[in-house]
C-alpha cells in the first residue's frame, strides 16, 4: 500500500527558506508512470499546486511560485523534497506531498502545517 | 491557466437525500489525447483530500457507488445519490489536462 509522509520544520521565519521532504513507501519513486508533487492549503482555504517532479528530475512549477521554488528527487532514498525561498506569512499553509498518475492525483500524504512567523 | 469554478460553494443537505455540485472550467478540458482529465476530490474535516472520481465519471478504488460524475467539455457535475453522515466535507473539482488547477471547493454539511 502506497504511503507518502511529509517531514520538516513546522515553523519558519520570514525571509528564510522552507524545506520539506516527502518519503514514499510501498512503491518506487523511480516508476515511469508517475509524477511526484507538492500542493498546499492555507488555513481554511483551497488547494494550490506548487510543482512536481519526475524520477528523471524534470520539473514543473506553478508560474506564480516558480521564482522561489525548487523540487528535487533522491531515488536512492525514495524521497523528494521542496524548497521555497523568501517566505512570508502568506506561505503559511498545510503542505501535502502527492502522487500524480496518468489519470489524476491519486495518493496524498497526511500533510504538514508550516507556519511562517518570527 | 485554466480556471475552475464551482457552484454552490455551500450545500446543506438532508441525510438520505441527493446532492449535486457543478464545476465549470474556463476552457475545454479535452486533452489532445482525447481524454478529459477532470477529477473530483473529497476532503473530510481534518483529513487530506482523497480521489473520488477521475476522467469525469470513473470511481476510484474503494469509492461507494452513491458517488457519480458526469459532464463534458467545460461543464461537469458530481452527484451523491443519498447523502450519508460520512460525506460531510469539502469537494473539489480539479483538472489535469493543462498541468493542474483546483476549484474553490464546495462545503457539504448536514441540515
Question: Overview of this structure, please?
Answer:
- The complex is a heterodimer of chains A (118) and B (111).
- Chain A has 118 residues and is mostly beta strands.
- Chain A has no helices and eleven strands.
- Chain B has 111 residues and is mainly beta.
- Chain B is built from no helices and eleven strands.
- In chain B, strands 2, 4, 5, 6, 9, 10 and 11 form a seven-stranded mixed β-sheet that branches. In chain B, strands 1-3-8-7 form a four-stranded antiparallel β-sheet, with no helix packed on it.
- The chains are: A mainly beta (118), B mainly beta (111).
- Chains A and B meet through strand 10 of A and strand 5 and strand 10 of B.
Mind describing the biggest β-sheet of chain B? Answer: 7 strands, mixed
Report the mean per-residue pLDDT of chain A as an integer: 95
**How many beta-strand elements of chain B?**
11
Q: Low-confidence segments of chain B, ≥5 residues, pLDDT <50?
A: none
Gyration radius from CA atoms of chain B, angstroms:
13 Å
**Distance, first to last CA of chain A:** 39 Å
Helices and strands of chain A: which structural class? mainly beta
> Biggest interface, which chains?
A-B, 17 and 22 residues
SSE succession of chain B: EEEEEEEEEEE
Number of helices of chain A: 0
The topology string of helices and strands of chain A comes to EEEEEEEEEEE
Question: Which shape of chain B, going by the Cα principal axes?
Answer: globular
State the secondary-structure class of chain B.
Answer: mainly beta
Distance between the amino and carboxyl termini of chain B: 36 Å
Q: What characteristic shape of chain A results from the CA principal axes?
A: globular
Average pLDDT, all residues of chain B: 96
What is the radius of gyration of chain A? 13 Å
> Mind summarizing the main beta sheet of chain A?
7 strands, mixed
Total beta strands of chain A: 11
Amino acid at each position: 500500500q502506497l504511503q507518502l509522509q511529509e517531514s520538516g520544520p513546522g515553523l519558519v521565519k520570514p525571509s528564510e527558506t522552507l524545506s520539506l521532504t516527502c518519503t514514499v513507501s510501498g512503491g518506487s519513486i523511480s516508476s515511469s508512470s508517475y509524477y511526484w508533487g507538492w500542493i498546499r492549503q492555507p488555513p481554511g482555504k483551497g488547494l494550490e499546486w506548487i510543482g512536481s517532479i519526475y524520477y528523471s528530475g524534470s520539473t514543473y512549477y506553478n508560474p506564480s511560485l516558480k521564482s522561489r521554488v525548487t523540487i528535487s528527487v533522491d531515488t536512492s532514498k525514495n524521497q523528494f523534497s521542496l524548497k521555497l525561498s523568501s517566505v512570508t506569512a502568506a506561505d503559511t499553509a498545510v503542505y501535502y506531498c502527492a502522487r500524480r498518475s496518468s489519470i489524476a492525483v491519486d495518493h496524498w500524504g497526511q500533510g504538514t502545517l508550516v507556519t511562517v512567523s518570527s | 491557466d485554466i480556471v475552475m469554478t464551482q457552484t454552490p460553494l455551500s450545500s446543506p443537505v438532508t441525510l438520505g437525500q441527493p446532492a449535486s455540485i457543478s464545476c465549470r472550467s474556463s476552457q475545454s478540458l479535452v486533452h489532445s489525447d482525447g481524454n478529459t482529465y477532470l477529477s473530483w476530490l473529497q476532503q473530510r474535516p481534518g483529513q487530506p483530500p482523497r480521489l473520488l472520481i477521475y476522467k469525469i465519471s470513473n470511481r476510484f478504488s474503494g469509492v461507494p457507488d452513491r458517488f457519480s460524475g458526469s459532464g463534458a467539455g467545460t461543464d461537469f457535475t458530481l452527484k451523491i445519490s443519498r447523502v450519508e453522515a460520512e460525506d460531510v466535507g469539502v469537494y473539489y473539482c480539479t483538472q489535469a489536462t493543462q498541468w493542474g488547477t483546483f476549484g474553490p471547493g464546495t462545503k457539504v454539511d448536514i441540515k
